[in-house]
Amino acid sequence: MFISNYVAKFPDAQGAIHYDESENDVWHDLFQRQRSIVKDLACKTFLEGLDIIQFPENRVPQLTEINAALGRATGWGVEPVAAIIPADEFFTLLSQRKFPAANFIRRREDFDYITEPDIFHEYFGHLPMLTDPTYADFMAKYGEMALQASELERHYLARLYWFTVEFGLINTPEGLRNYGGGILSSPSETVYAVRSDIPERRPLCDVIEALRTPYRIDILQPIYYVIESFSELYKLLNPELLDLIHEAHQLGDYPPAYPPLDEAQHDIVC
Ligand SMILES: [Fe+2]
Fold this sequence. Notes:
By secondary structure, the protein is α/β, with parallel strands linked by helices. The chain is 49% helix and 9% strand. The chain has a single domain, classed as Phenylalanine Hydroxylase (Orthogonal Bundle), CATH 1.10.800. The two termini are 15 Å apart. Bound molecules: fe (ii) ion (FE2). Fe (ii) ion (FE2) binds next to helix 5 and helix 8.
């Protein structure tokens, strides 16, 4: 069972979430560092999303201002939740264009690495991409599809989420770029994922490969899957994907490139 080291934050009656000075300072320092790192390493869609959202620099963003910006762009919004929520609730929110997000911010001692998703990961990592109409449609359709899927199918859909929404790369005219929120909220992985010679990079077009690839949540990824466009992601979500999932299940997983975690931890989507 997952036990959080943090206390979830929720809005008060006026819709405000309260952060103290040290929490605002942590946001400022995380935001300043990461904004500069992503400049040449994130895809154009993500960078344009940052411009659209206009995160404040000196304080943790408020839900109301973020929802206004996202709502204008694509009709999406943020739903404040505790760090880990049941799968049904998670997929229902996505299908309703509500991104489930934890609203606490990491403590200074967890500045460089935090195992559970905090507001910096959720907002900075994920929300810029949700300003893009095609990506926004993909995320909502993913929620709809997962909601109707069996438990087995959800296990594989969670893998697809991991290799796209969290750790996806895209080929662009400027070169390989990051779009996954797990990468783009991590300074070291933002550089490693597109520049290092260590990880393997495979095309996502052969999706059955990704479906058969186990992953770990607590290391720099040894394998990334690369797309050519965001419409490729949207088109992937069709009934044929369920056939491929069952085929992947029949064929079995590839051996992990590292010691696997417990099966229970494979099912975490963040
Ligand atoms: Fe995430």
